[in-house]
Structure formats: structure tokens, C-alpha cells
Design brief:
heterotrimer, A alpha+beta (about 350), B mainly alpha (about 290), C mainly alpha (about 280), B: about 290 residues, mainly alpha, MetI-like fold, 12 helices, C: about 280 residues, 13 helices, about 75% helix, globular, transmembrane helix (chain B), Sugar ABC transporter permease (chain B), MetI-like (chain B), transport (chain B)
């Protein structure tokens, strides 16, 4: 199957009744890329994937594979591979027959089918399980069958719909590496849907962050991680501290905000003017316990192995609306302690609210 | 077709797979809807003339015919009600797993599959004046003369209980096992007594199922035909409406009049169905927490 | 496994159940005993036992022909109703489309209506077009409740098959035909068997519709039995009983087969709430 150079999604929109599941998705996928669609559940990422697969018709927009419009083709004519969240293995077929299914649908010669199926089974290390039924396999093994079944056809594009979400934590880490390795060694183009930001950051070449059916940001993992485009993205990317504050001073893109009586400098993301209500975002690991800075009282301490997650109530906040900061620290602190906090310079992002 | 149109239709669920519905739709239109409408229009074209509604006025003005409605309801309603009401405590008792449950339910299926004709034959033999039951009652001196249980109202009633009760029981049992038993345990931890638990938790969750069961049992009882002839008194106390329709069609060959009676029969049944459905729609019909 | 505890209410309930079963046994056994009895008048049991009534019934009622007709009608109804009903069940289980409620209700009505209500107009129409009085008319009439019944029985089986499995097959290049033949058909074998056997049991036992449409050569066993009963006095009571026993035997065989594939509750009805849209 000849590959494509570019796959272009052009204003892809899908409505369910009155609800917009996906609005105007524009995205260009280059050959060989690993793209992650990331967002909370219901953000439209799975809708986007199903539209791309042809399993869900579009309400508006078009999908182009180089110069060919493909959004009117049925899924079986697009030649894409797909790995499903629940694997969707054929329960009545053995591992071998599951993997050979696509090859048989293409009416390839028997010998070809046997050879390529065997190769695929070897690649995912399931030789001794080849004649078992899916019900007799563990979750991780089923996952590997699903991946082999989708990739044995050497599809131009592989779509993965939260493929790791049903696995336990340890297996998930192993499979992450495995999928990335397969992507590289087979030269696949992959679109990967996940709600796990860590998974997306570690696997993808580019991330597409979505919210309420709309794209929030498209960028490399580093861009999305360090410079989220909106406070919603920041929220999703692990900026647990989102503080509604007031901007006091501007200096270029440096903003000064008042936090618990202390002036703190952050970098403005978007249009912010002095006196505006803003949302300041900072990760827990970028807030440090120190001798001076913002004062507060430790409320909750969670022991997490090497580190502690600490929740601090800042002094000077109102009784009914106290300001809380989440802090990660290796220091030993206890609930009820009085502490002082500083923010690592340059790590406070200020968004218009 | 343009891509936009295809998209728009597909979005509403209209795609090529809908063709699969076609054979069944044609079938139901040709063999159910069309005959029904044909019968309806036939019923407005009386054989003897006399206006559009002549058949209906003939039916309702003739007490011998009109009374078949009451006769049918007088048999069907109590029988359906008894079947459902008796099924509830028994099913409640026998829910859950126990030894011999499969055997019990299997035996219960027997009378349903035997059908009304065989049941009628059995009832005639068993309940007849020289049947085993009367023989037993006579030899125990409980009665002095054989009691008449066949060729009257009671014969038909018993036949409806024998086929209808197992039906109701199995349905109620399946509804009951669909109710999560932890709900009752939760109520018990909140201090509800056995009776309160049944009254406040199980019964409200079961009620819609009971309504459905009643409906299906009623439909069975309402269409009583062979047993009304065979174990009933088809000229008098068990002259049910289906019999009137049959006689009009196959004894007087007045299909127009027969269709009119069939339409009356359908209408009466649908009225009862509608009343039960309206009552049922006011009940809680959501999830009952079980896997049923 | 749980033992049923004996409370006073429990005893009452058991007594009612036992009473029901005793009488049921009386009904069935009285037919059985009578069919083997020589003379039975005003005694507990017949004065002697014989199998002659079976021979009589077999000859007098041309039972061989009747049984052949019964099996033929049932087989045709089963095959046709599954062929027509299963695809419709698939669409109703899987898809939402405008007017689905109306379609569903139309399919449900033949089960909710007493057979006589639509049976008389249906028979009239079938006579008009020359179907009634023949095997074809009996088959057509019996299809009316059978197709909806297949739809009701199959729907939950289809709902149990994860639609993602069909999607996976399509993604692997399977067209609609291949999805049906290679994926759905093997997965739906239990459902197809269940609905086929249920329709078989119901068709063999269906009296009203067959009664209204059958001619002398197209009577099924249950209708022949009814005629022999209502014409009592002409034939010996015992040979009617013998015929009833043959019918019962046939039903019981079917029942035993059926219960290998379905549970007893399914034989009664497949209750499904209104489809959600």
C-alpha cells in the first residue's frame, strides 16, 4: 500500500443532535509523525479519531489524503489500522486468525498470509499463544494481539484509541515503550488518543490538546508542557495551582501579581493589562518551601514516597475564601506548621481570566 | 449524492444498513397492517347494507352479541389478576438460587407449551363429573354430588389459570431477579423491617414489571378461544367475543360483520392495555440496579 | 445454594405450589391414562389397558399426514421468520433513525394483539388472494407473530456483541457482507438457535391462526386435535386422548430440546422495555 505524504483535516465537525462533539478541527499530519490527541473525557478526541477512521460520518468539513478526498469513503476502503480501547478482538477467532483477518480480507495468497501473520505474532512475542482464543489471554497479551492485528497490514495510518487505559500501571509503562518502538521500526504514522498527559508527552512528536470539542493548542510536548496556551491547557498539563489574582504592574511580558501580600513576577500569556483579573498558574514542583516569601499554614500532607504533596493555606486570605497552594517538596513538614513559600523564577504563568 | 447530503443523512442514522429493515417492514405491512386496515374498511361495508356503521350498531344493539364483551372481561380480568397476584409472593419466596429451581421452572413451562387445546382435554377428563377430582371429593364425603367444574365459567377460568399462572410466575421471577438484592440489605441496615422492605423497596421497583406481566397475561386470557368452546359453555356463560367473531366469519360467512367484531375486540383490549400503560408510566421505570 | 426456610407463610406458599402441581399432574395424567384404557366409566381407573386407540387415531385422523404438515409448516415458518426477523433485529438493536419508535411499535403490535383480532381480517385477505386453505396460507399467517418474536428474541443477543468488534472488522477491510458472514453470524449462533427453537415451539402450539387459515389438507396437529375434540361423540373419546398424547409427546420432545438452548423464562417472553432514543 502506498503511503501518503500528508493527511489534512479541514474544518472537521461532528454534531450529536444539538451537541457539538467536535468543532472545526484543522490538522495536518505528516508522514511518519506520532500525534497525540489529548484532553479530558468528552473533549472530542475520540470523536476526531472515529471521524478519521470513517466509523463516524462528519457533519461538516473534509479529510484529504494528499489530493484525494477520503471522508466519504467507508472505513474498509481507507486502509487505516485501528487499536481500540477494549481491544475489540474477535472472540470466536484464535490469536492467529485475528491477526490474519485483515490479510484474508485483502485476498492475499495463502502463503503470504501465513508468513506475514507469523512474523507479526513473533514481533509481539505471542508464539506460544497463537492458537488460543482471546478470552484465554491476559489484558497485556490481548493488547499485543490488537496491535499486531492493526499493524500487520502495514497501514498508512494507525489510529489508537486510549489503548493502554485498561492495563495496570506497570504494564502501561512497558507498552508505552513498545508502541513507540513499533512506530519507529515499522515507520508508521500514528494518531494516538489519550487523557493521560504523561503518556502523551512521553510518546508523541506533536500534541493536540482539546477541550469541549475545540482545539486549544497544537505543539511539541515541550511547547505544550512549558507554555500552555490557555489556563485550561495549563490546568490539564499539571499546573495544579490556578489562582485568581489581580495584575498590578507590567514590564514587557513580565507581570507582577499580588499573592498573599507578596508581589510575585510571572510571564504574561496573552493580553494582560495592569488592574485586570488574571489567573496565575504554577506547578506544585515549582513552589518551594523556604525561609522567606509568602507565609502560610500547612493544612494537609500526603506522603508520596520520595516527595510529599503539601497543601498550604496562605495567610491573609479571607475566612470563607482561603487561598490554597499545592507544593511538592522533599522536606519533612507536618500539618499545622507555619511555612514560607517562593515560586521558581520564570515558572509562574499569568493568563487573562 | 453530494458529500454534504450523505453526511447529513448518515448523521441522523440513515445509511445503507437501513435496507436490512426492508424485508421485515414489507412483511409487517403486507401481512399485518394491510389486513388490519382491510378488515377495518370491510367492517364499514356491511353485507346487508344499512349505512357505514350498521355492523357496529347491529353488534351493540343485540344483547346476545354485546354481552360477549362483558363475558370476556369477566373471565380475562380476574384470571389475569389472580395469576399475577399469586405469582408475586411465590416468586418472592423462590427467588435466588436453590436446589431444584431449574426443575421447578421447567415443570412450570409444560402447561404453557401444552397449549389450550390439550389443557382443555385434560380438564374435561380430570374435572369432569366422573373425573379424579370429583371422585376424590365424593369418596372423602366432602360433597354429595359431583361439582360441576367443566362446561361452564369455571372450566374456562381454570384453563386460563393453568396456562397463565406459570407464564406470570416466570415473568415475575425474572423481574424480581433483576432487582439488586443489596438494595434490600441496605434498607435493612437503615432499620426497615421485612414487611417495610418489601413495601418500600421491592414492590415499587417491581411494579412496572408487574404491570407488564399483567398486560401479557391479560392478552393471553383475552384471546381465549379453544377452551371457551371445549371446557366452557359456548352458548351461554362463556360465549366470549372471539367466539362471536369466529361464528360470524365461519358459520354465517359474514366477513364484514366478523371484521367489525374483531375490531371491537381489538379496541376493547387496547383500552385495557392503554389504561395499564398509563398507570405504569407513572411508576419509576429506571434501572433496578440488577443485571437483569 | 440457599435452603428455603420454613415460616408459616412459606408453608402456605409451598402448599399452593404443590396444589397447583398436583392438579396439573391430574390434568396431564388423566389424558395419558385414558388413552391407554379400554373402558373407563365411573371408576378410578380403566378396566383394562390397550394401545389400540393409538392405531385408531393414527388411521382415523390420518395422523401421519397431519404430522408431516405440522413439521413442514413449522420448519418453513422458522426459516422464513429468522431470515426476515434477524436483519431487522440487527438494525433495531444497533441504530437510531427517525421513526424508530413507530417501526418498533408496529413490530410489537402483532404480539400484543389477540390472534383472533387480526387473524380474521388476515384470513379474509388470504382467502381473497387464494393463499388460505393451503399450506402457504398457514405459513404466512403463522409468520405474523413469529417475525416480531424473532426480533424480540434476537435484539438482546445482538446488543451483547460489542459494536467495536464490527468496527474493528471494517477497519481491517471487511465490507458489510464480510462483517455479517465472518463476524456476526458466528457470534450470533446462540441467539439464532434460541429464536429458531422458540418460534418452532410456538408454531407447533399455535392454534388460532392455523385454525383460521387451514384447509382440510393443511391442518396442523393442534388444529386436528381441536376438530376431533369438538366432534366428540363421533369418535371414541380414547382415540382423541391418544391423539392428545401424541401431541403432548411432540411438544415435550421440543421442550426438552428447547431447554438445552434457552432458559425457561425465555420460552415465555423476551421482555424488553421500550428502546431508548
Amino acid at each position: 500500500m502506498s503511503g501518503f505524504d500528508q493527511l489534512r483535516l479541514d474544518g472537521v465537525t461532528r454534531r450529536f443532535g444539538a451537541a457539538d462533539a467536535l468543532v472545526g478541527l484543522d490538522l495536518t499530519i505528516e508522514r511518519g509523525e506520532f500525534i497525540a490527541l489529548l484532553g479530558p473525557s468528552g473533549c472530542g478526541k475520540s470523536t476526531a479519531l472515529n471521524c478519521l477512521a470513517g466509523l463516524l460520518p462528519l457533519t461538516a468539513g473534509a479529510i484529504w489524503q494528499d489530493d484525494q478526498r477520503i471522508d466519504t469513503l467507508p472505513p474498509e476502503k481507507r486502509g487505516f489500522g485501528m487499536v481500540f480501547q477494549n481491544y475489540a478482538l474477535f472472540p470466536h477467532l484464535t490469536v492467529r486468525d485475528n491477526i490474519a483477518f485483515g490479510l484474508r480480507m485483502r485476498h492475499l495468497p495463502k502463503d503470504d498470509v501465513r508468513r506475514r501473520t507469523t512474523e507479526a505474532i513473533e514481533m509481539v512475542q505471542l508464539i506460544e499463544h497463537a492458537s488460543k482464543l482471546p478470552g484465554q489471554l491476559s489484558g497485556g497479551q490481548q493488547q499485543r494481539v490488537a496491535i499486531a492485528r492493526a499493524t500487520v497490514l502495514e497501514p498508512t495510518l494507525v489510529l489508537m484509541d486510549e489503548p493502554l487505559s485498561n492495563l495496570d500501571a506497570k504494564l502501561r509503562l512497558e507498552m508505552r515503550t513498545e508502541i513507540r518502538r513499533l512506530h519507529q521500526s515499522l515507520g508508521l504514522t500514528t494518531v494516538y488518543v489519550t487523557h493521560d498527559q504523561e503518556e502523551a508527552l512521553s510518546m508523541a512528536d506533536r500534541l493536540v490538546v482539546m477541550r469541549q470539542g475545540k482545539v486549544q493548542q497544537i505543539g511539541t510536548p515541550e511547547e505544550v508542557h512549558t507554555k500552555p496556551s490557555t489556563w485550561h491547557v495549563a490546568d490539564f498539563m499539571g499546573y495544579r495551582n490556578l489562582l485568581p489574582l489581580k495584575a498590578s504592574q507590567m514590564n514587557g511580558d513580565q507581570v507582577t501579581v499580588d499573592l498573599g501580600g507578596t508581589a510575585i513576577r510571572g510571564s504574561a500569556q496573552g493580553a494582560v493589562a495592569p488592574g485586570d483579573d488574571v489567573i496565575a498558574a504554577v506547578r506544585p514542583e515549582d513552589v518551594k518551601l523556604s525561609d522567606q516569601g509568602v507565609k502560610g499554614l500547612v493544612e494537609v500532607v500526603e506522603y508520596q514516597g520520595r516527595e510529599r504533596a503539601v497543601e498550604v493555606v496562605l495567610d491573609g486570605g479571607g475566612q470563607d475564601d482561603p487561598v490554597r497552594l499545592h507544593v511538592r517538596t522533599e522536606q519533612r513538614v507536618e500539618a499545622g506548621e507555619q511555612v514560607a513559600l517562593t515560586v521558581t523564577p520564570g515558572r509562574l504563568l499569568v493568563y487573562p481570566s | 449524492m453530494s458529500a454534504t447530503w450523505q453526511h447529513r443523512l448518515a448523521e441522523r442514522g440513515v445509511d445503507r444498513r437501513l435496507w436490512l429493515l426492508l424485508p421485515a417492514t414489507i412483511f409487517v405491512l403486507l401481512l399485518f397492517v394491510y389486513p388490519f386496515l382491510y378488515g377495518l374498511s370491510l367492517s364499514f361495508q356491511p353485507t346487508d347494507g344499512g349505512g357505514v356503521l350498521a355492523n357496529y350498531s347491529k353488534f351493540f344493539s343485540d344483547a346476545y352479541q354485546r354481552d360477549t364483551i362483558a363475558t370476556t372481561l369477566k373471565i380475562a380480568l380476574p384470571a389475569a389478576l389472580l395469576n399475577v397476584l399469586a405469582a408475586v409472593p411465590i416468586a418472592f419466596r423462590l427467588r435466588g438460587r436453590f436446589r431444584g429451581k431449574r426443575l421447578l421452572t421447567t415443570i412450570l413451562v409444560v402447561p404453557i407449551t401444552l397449549g389450550t387445546v390439550l389443557t382443555a382435554q385434560g380438564l374435561l377428563n380430570y374435572l369432569g363429573p366422573t373425573g379424579w377430582l370429583n371422585r376424590l371429593l365424593l369418596s372423602l364425603h366432602i360433597v354429595d354430588d359431583p361439582i360441576r367444574l367443566t362446561n361452564n365459567y369455571w372450566g374456562v377460568f381454570f384453563s386460563l389459570v393453568i396456562t397463565g399462572f406459570p407464564f406470570a410466575f416466570l415473568l415475575v421471577l425474572s423481574y424480581l431477579s433483576g432487582i439488586d438484592p443489596t438494595l434490600e440489605r441496605a434498607a435493612a441496615t437503615l432499620g426497615a423491617s421485612r414487611a417495610q422492605r418489601f413495601r418500600r423497596i421491592t414492590l415499587p421497583l417491581l411494579a412496572p414489571g408487574l404491570a407488564t406481566t399483567f398486560l401479557l397475561t391479560f392478552v393471553l386470557a383475552f384471546s381465549v378461544f379453544p377452551s371457551a368452546v371445549l371446557v366452557g359453555n359456548p352458548a351461554g356463560s362463556t360465549r366470549v367475543i372471539s367466539l362471536a367473531a369466529y361464528q360470524a366469519a365461519y358459520e354465517q360467512y359474514d366477513y364484514s360483520y366478523a371484521s367489525a367484531i374483531a375490531m371491537v375486540m381489538g379496541a376493547v383490549e387496547l383500552v385495557v392495555v392503554a389504561i395499564v400503560l398509563v398507570w405504569r408510566s407513572r411508576l419509576y421505570t429506571g434501572s433496578t440496579g440488577g443485571k437483569g | 445454594m440457599r435452603q428455603i426456610r420454613a415460616t408459616p407463610l412459606g408453608w402456605v406458599i409451598w402448599a399452593v405450589v404443590v396444589f397447583f402441581f398436583v392438579n396439573l399432574a391430574g390434568v396431564v395424567l388423566s389424558v395419558l391414562v385414558s388413552s391407554f384404557g379400554t373402558k373407563w366409566f365411573d371408576t378410578w381407573f380403566p378396566s383394562g389397558f390397550t394401545t389400540q386407540w393409538y392405531g385408531d387415531a393414527w388411521r382415523e385422523f390420518t395422523l401421519f399426514h397431519v404430522i408431516v404438515v405440522t413439521l413442514l409448516v413449522s420448519a418453513l415458518v422458522v426459516v422464513l421468520s429468522v431470515l426476515v426477523g434477524a436483519p431487522a433485529a440487527y438494525v433495531l438493536a444497533r441504530k437510531n433513525f427517525p421513526g424508530k419508535r413507530l417501526v418498533y411499535l408496529t413490530f410489537l403490535l402483532p404480539i400484543l394483539m389477540p390472534p383472533i383480532t387480526y387473524g380474521i381480517p388476515l384470513a379474509t385477505v388470504l382467502y381473497k388472494f387464494g393463499f388460505a386453505g393451503h399450506l402457504s396460507g398457514v405459513v404466512l399467517a403463522n409468520l405474523v407473530p413469529s417475525v416480531p418474536f424473532v426480533i424480540l428474541t434476537m435484539t438482546p443477543f445482538i446488543e451483547q456483541v460489542d459494536p467495536r468488534i464490527e468496527d474493528a472488522a471494517r477497519m481491517l477491510g471487511a465490507g458489510t457482507r464480510a462483517v455479517f458472514l465472518k463476524i456476526l453470524a458466528p457470534l450470533l449462533v446462540p441467539g439464532l438457535l434460541a429464536s429458531a427453537i422458540l418460534v418452532l415451539v410456538r408454531t407447533v402450539g399455535m392454534f388460532e391462526l392455523t385454525f383460521l387459515t387451514a384447509g382440510p389438507d393443511s391442518q396442523t396437529l393442534v388444529v386436528a386435535l381441536y376438530y376431533s375434540m369438538s366432534a366428540a361423540g363421533i369418535r371414541a373419546q380414547q382415540s382423541v386422548d391418544a391423539m392428545a398424547v401424541i401431541y403432548t409427546g411432540m411438544m415435550l420432545v421440543l421442550l426438552v430440546v428447547a431447554l438445552r438452548f434457552v432458559n425457561p423464562t425465555q420460552l415465555v417472553a423476551r421482555v424488553k422495555e421500550e428502546p431508548s432514543e
